[in-house]
């Protein structure tokens, strides 16, 4: 068992490297925080145009898969997630995002995590970013 006072970087095997000075996830004791995950597949370069990943559905599902990869690497899953933050670039995307998110988490047992949704600017072509806070153990 690791020292609960030590912070550990969580990096899924599929992760292609951060584009900035951060870890995909950080764990300290029973707390796991994922970094914001964009809707880019592992290994994909940053977006150069909206033509690469033009649709919200594809980006939302990929961002959720990327969060899942960090959770899994830490030996966790969505059942441990207590808080989700969703960052959207357009208020018009809320309804579709909500439907996709609900369908993705529909198989989870127990209550859904708390969630905050905000509207922000993201790198060119990115429509969504999602992060999660989990309590393990």
From TrEMBL:
InterPro entries: RutC-like_sf, YjgF/YER057c/UK114. This is Enamine deaminase RidA, house cleaning of reactive enamine intermediates, YjgF/YER057c/UK114 family. One of its GO terms (molecular function) is deaminase activity. One of its GO terms (cellular component) is cytosol. It comes from the Bacteria. SUPFAM superfamilies: YjgF-like. Residues 1-27 are annotated as: Disordered. It holds the Pfam family Ribonuc_L-PSP.
């Amino acid at each position: 068992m690791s020292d609960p006072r030590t912070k550990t970087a969580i990096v899924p095997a599929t992760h292609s490297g951060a584009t900035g000075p951060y870890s995909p996830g950080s764990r300290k004791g029973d707390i796991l925080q994922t970094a914001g995950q964009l809707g880019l597949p592992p290994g994909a370069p940053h977006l150069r145009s909206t033509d690469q990943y033009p649709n919200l559905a594809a980006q939302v599902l990929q961002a959720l898969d990327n969060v899942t990869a960090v959770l899994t690497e830490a030996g966790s899953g969505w059942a441990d997630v207590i808080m989700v933050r969703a960052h959207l670039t357009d208020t018009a995307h809320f309804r579709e995002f909500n439907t996709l998110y609900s369908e993705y988490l529909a198989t989870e047992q127990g209550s859904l995590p708390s969630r905050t949704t905000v509207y922000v600017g993201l790198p060119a072509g990115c429509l969504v970013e999602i992060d999660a806070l989990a309590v393990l153990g």
